[in-house]
Write a structure and sequence with these properties.
mainly alpha, 0% strand, Cro/C1-type_HTH, DNA binding, single chain, Lambda_DNA-bd_dom_sf, HTH cro/C1-type domain-containing protein
């Protein structure tokens, strides 16, 4: 997509035709067409397009989607501010690295996800959100800050997704990342590699709803959860084949709401799970069930008047034949 938007922005800025752009760059019109179709562009050619379009180091995708350099800068400023506030609110014990990213990747990922959800990004930045978020006169912006977090349809949704990202990323960091990084690194480069990369999509699934603002939400959520189920199955199978204990049900990443995921991650980071009888979540459940059985069975027998002699087990029947 970079190549396509580089071409579109250059033509728009210069007010020229595709043929005139080709002459200016010293390439054939056919090459311009290939770039518009998404063909890879060399770094040297990217530099030329950045100069021609005047976008500097900005992400061409963000500039194209938002309608111009000024609008792109404002969206970048907004997403960065919301990310910083959300990051400060994290309680999982793990750093949500996507929110701490200094590049424009988070801004583009956010806007691209909104686009997939069917949100139309306005070509004029919302006036409600166009102010200094860090102004010293807080009383003067208090109402606008409140609007940004709770009322504006764009910023409130983005902020909610970033808060949810804290929780889903925390769960990933607590229970999945170490399996991904296991010795032979077999999972790296596999479809499971997408688990971390697409967590923002999953976060939007946790906080979104099927409404007029998000007309594509149902399809987006269905496809996202379907992909995650397949990716997590890969991780679980790998863990089973390599005798790696699972300290949580990994499918909870898609089954549970983000608050529950955050609490699970926090418990792991604080060491509350070290008291488990067994490091594997499934074996731990079996052992806990046995402990319950040992406590409950004598009471049941007493109620029914069953003696120890009557309850004596034939151990030979406990083995497979």
């Amino acid at each position: 997509m970079d190549s396509k938007n580089f071409v579109l922005l250059a033509i728009q800025t210069l007010g020229c035709t595709q043929k005139e752009l080709a002459l200016k760059l010293g390439v054939s019109p056919a090459q311009i067409t290939k770039w518009k179709s998404g063909e890879h562009m060399s770094l040297e050619m990217e530099k030329q397009f950045r100069l021609l379009s005047g976008i500097g180091d900005r992400d061409p995708n963000v500039v194209a989607l938002t309608g111009g350099i000024e609008q792109a800068d404002k969206w970048e400023k907004l997403t960065k501010h919301l990310a910083e506030v959300a990051l400060d609110s994290a309680e999982t014990g793990y750093v949500t690295y996507p929110l701490a990213d200094e590049s424009e990747l988070l801004c583009w990922s956010t806007l691209d996800t909104l686009n997939e959800l069917g949100v139309e990004i306005p070509k004029t930045f919302p006036e409600q959100l166009d102010f200094d978020y860090c102004a010293e006169d807080f009383d003067g912006i208090k109402d606008r800050i409140e609007c940004m977090y709770r009322e504006n349809i764009y910023s409130s949704l983005i902020y909610s997704a970033y808060l949810a990202l804290n929780d889903v990323y925390g769960f990933y960091a607590a229970y999945i990342s170490e399996i991904m990084d296991h010795g032979d690194m077999e999972l790296m480069g596999s479809p499971a590699d997408n688990i971390e990369a697409c967590l923002l999509n999953l976060a939007f699934c946790k906080v979104g709803a099927d409404n007029e603002m998000l007309p594509h939400f149902s399809d987006f959520k269905y496809n996202t959860l379907k992909d995650y189920k397949a990716w997590i199955e890969i991780v679980k199978n790998y863990a089973f084949n390599n005798n790696i204990p699972l300290r949580a049900e990994l499918m909870n990443l898609i089954l549970c709401d983000h608050d529950d995921l955050g609490h699970e991650a926090e418990a792991e980071s604080l060491g509350f799970n070290t008291s488990r009888l067994h490091p594997d979540i499934y074996m731990n459940e079996i052992l806990q069930s046995h402990r319950v059985l040992h406590q409950v069975l004598p009471v049941i027998c007493k109620k029914l008047g069953i003696t120890e002699d009557e309850l004596k087990l034939d151990s030979s029947k406990l083995y497979l034949k």
